[in-house]
Amino acid sequence: MKSLNLKILLGAVELGLIFGVMALGVYLTFRILDFPDLTVDGSLTIGAATAAVLIIQGYSPWLGLALAFLAGGVAGMITGVLHTHFRIIPILAGILTMTGLYSVNLRIMGRANLPLLGTDTVVDSLRSLGIPAQYGWVVFGLLLAGAVIIFLYWLFQTELGLALRATGDNEVMIKSLGVNVNGMKILGLSLGNALVALAGGAVAQLQGFADISMGIGMIIAGLAAVIIGEMLIGTRTLLRALIAVLCGSLVYRIIIAVVLRLGLQTTDLKLVTAVLVVLALTLPRFGFKKQLLALGGWSRASVEKGN
Amino acid sequence: MLQLKKATKVFNRDSVNEKRALHQLDLQLAAGDFVTIIGSKGAGKSTLLNAIAGLWFLDEGKIYLDGTDITNMPDYKRAGLIGRVFQDPMVGTAASMTIEENLALAAKRGHSRGLKKGINKSLRSRIKEELSRLGLGLEDRLSTPVGLLSGGQRQALTLLMATFQQPRLLLLDEHTAALDPKTGEKVLSLTEELVAESGLTTLMVTHNIVDSLKVGNRTIMMHEGQIVLDIKGKEREEMTPQDVLRLFERNSGKQLANDRMLLVKNRKSNGA
User: Fold this and answer.
1) Can you tell me the ipTM of this complex?
2) Contact residues, chain B, for A304 at CB < 8 Å
3) What whole-number distance in Å separates Cα of residue A134 and Cα of residue A136?
4) Which helix (H) or strand (E) holds A229?
5) What pairing do the DSSP bridges indicate for beta strands B169-173 and B82-85?
6) CA A59 to CA A53: how far, in whole Å?
7) Which of A250, B44, B129, B169 could tie A16 with a disulfide, CB 3.0–4.6 Å?
8) What is the C-alpha separation between A177 and B154, in angstroms, rounded?
């Protein structure tokens, strides 16, 4: 077996940090809003497509990121409206948006693959600050993921954020306290998908291309990060839960890197990811649970059973 | 204060399961009225509260609160005026959120929610102060997730949340029924205390005839979506639980079908 050298580890950390932002978006919809949102596969790609097209046309890569964020927000909003105003069940609402986005993304890109050759990336502007090229993406990933975690931590403690969390926890209760839950769901889905698309915009720059199929299976990858993080680090406090998601993303990417070194093909990765999620979901039930509870404090599920 | 005019609601209209839940119901509450509602299962007690809270809209009739027509106002907007406590202690609180976060949510009932910090110093000290009145020691557990509390504690907390931002109207739907008798009594006396303190106009559904006469200043009995008995003042003071049961049978022409009520009846007649 070839050893996991530093370069590969660095690559995994870069991906783990950037996709950590996507995982935080998935955490927002899946966990905070309790909404199984499948828009993600489409909104990651719309982020990548938007950023890639803008960069190719000579606009700043930062503007690419900003508009990727907005495009994802619109995608999430559509899923939200489909669910709240047209009464379509969450899973189907997400699938419908995701399916529609496939065509939209092709329209944005003009073809199935857009290479970004010799174009500037957001990391190039960091290099001028004296950060070594080798660590550019790690630094950028840390800054971006850190900023998103701080933002979400702040948001979740505002009046609005409390109402958002309560919407996912207990809809009847928060309605009886005068909150328009439809509005909250649209807001949460919008923000969650905006974060996913932001990650997409960064991934396109990191990998040097945008591809129509890059979003496939991303929802499960994001979920893997969320669940692995919760299993390893726990959700005892809000900040801890957010950091857990990022760590889960890092662990997931490192596992993927190791699996690739073991000789599996990139085409096998979807299966590996699916198995990982199944393991992370079921292991706690086979005796792991006690150790995990001691390790990571309570999870939402255990609290509800605890009554 | 609160007025219902010819309120009518039919569920599953034109099907085999058609259910006339409210029928041409008229009800008027004066400010500060504390009304207890009794009636057998399916009499329309909860339906009446849900109609006022706006869970769905009436088929016919009007609802006015403080002179405002709220008949077609969506539930979350009415919620700014109305505090609610449900039968199930799990329904009134958010399990994954802390005690103080739950109360902070309640503190904003009827107000817009922005990007200001949800809990500031002055709110926290008020939360502590209010919690200490429950006598449950919750004021020292502000950051405990509500999911770790017992049903009785959660119900007491829900009651505090419903009255934290003084509502125009308080709706209590058998809110002690799911608790053990001792805890239920505690929550009920807390209810009386909170209501009396702010002179809240209150509607309380109960299955307990003794409580229905003891608590509040007025008692109504429902049957098949209508009010069949409405007593207050001297008439109510002189009423015994047995009288209520007799009146119910006379008004509805039926025996009470609710086994919990029958238990009360038997216990009382045996004891007498």
Assistant:
1) 0.88
2) 95, 147
3) 6
4) helix A218-232
5) parallel
6) 9
7) A250
8) 16
Domain boundaries, chain B: 2-271
Mutation target vs B (from A160, A162, A174, A303; most B CBs, 10 A cutoff)? A162
Contacts of A28 (CB under 8 A, 6+ apart): A152, A188, A191, A192, A195
Instruction: Classify strands B2-11 and B60-65 as parallel, antiparallel or unpaired.
Output: antiparallel
Give the gap in angstroms from C-alpha B84 to the nearest C-alpha of chain A.
7
The CA angle B241-B244-B247, to the nearest 5 degrees, is 155
Residue A179: CB atoms within 10 A of its CB come to 24
Is B114 close to A162, i.e. CB distance below 8 A? no
Residues in A touching B113 (Cβ below 8 Å) = 158-160, 162-163, 179
Distances B6 to B11, B25, B59 between C-alpha atoms, Å:
16, 5, 10
What type of residue sits at position A111? R
Q: Is B169 helix (H, G, I), strand (E, B) or coil?
A: strand
Q: How many CA atoms lie within 13 A of B87 on its CB side?
A: 11
Tally C-beta pairs within 8 A across A and B.
103
B59 touches chain A (CB under 8 A): no
**CA separation for the pair A153, A144 (Å, rounded):** 14
CA dist A58 and A297 (Å) reads 49
Cβ distance B97 to A162 less than 8 Å, yes or no, reads: yes
> Which residue in chain A has the smallest CA separation from B151?
A307
Contact assessment for residue A229 and residue A242, using Cβ atoms and an 8 Å cutoff: no
Domain boundaries defined on chain A: 6-215
A169/B95 CB distance under 8 A: yes
Q: What is the DSSP string of B45-110?
A: HHHHHHHHHTSS--SEEEEEETTEE-TT--HHHHTTTEEEE-SSTTTSS-TTSBHHHHHHHHHTTT
What is B2-271's CATH number? 3.40.50.300
pLDDT by residue for chain A (307 residues), tens digit each?
455 688 899 999 999 999 999 999 999 999 999 999 999 999 999 999 999 999 999 999 999 999 999 999 999 999 999 999 999 999 999 999 999 999 999 999 999 999 998 888 999 888 888 888 889 999 999 999 999 999 999 999 999 999 999 999 999 999 999 999 999 999 999 999 999 999 999 999 999 999 999 999 999 999 999 999 998 998 889 999 999 999 999 999 999 999 999 989 988 999 999 998 898 888 877 755 555 555 544 444 444 443 3
Q: Does A63 touch chain B (CB under 8 A)?
A: no
Exposure on the CB side of residue A212, measured as CA atoms within 13 A:
15
Touching A: B residues 135-174, CB under 8 Å: 145, 147-148, 150-151, 161
Q: How far lies A201's CA from each of A92, A271, B43, B145, B187, in Å? A: 25, 25, 59, 37, 54
Q: What is the pTM of this model?
A: 0.89
CA distances from A166 to A23, A171, B92, B212 (A): 21, 7, 11, 33
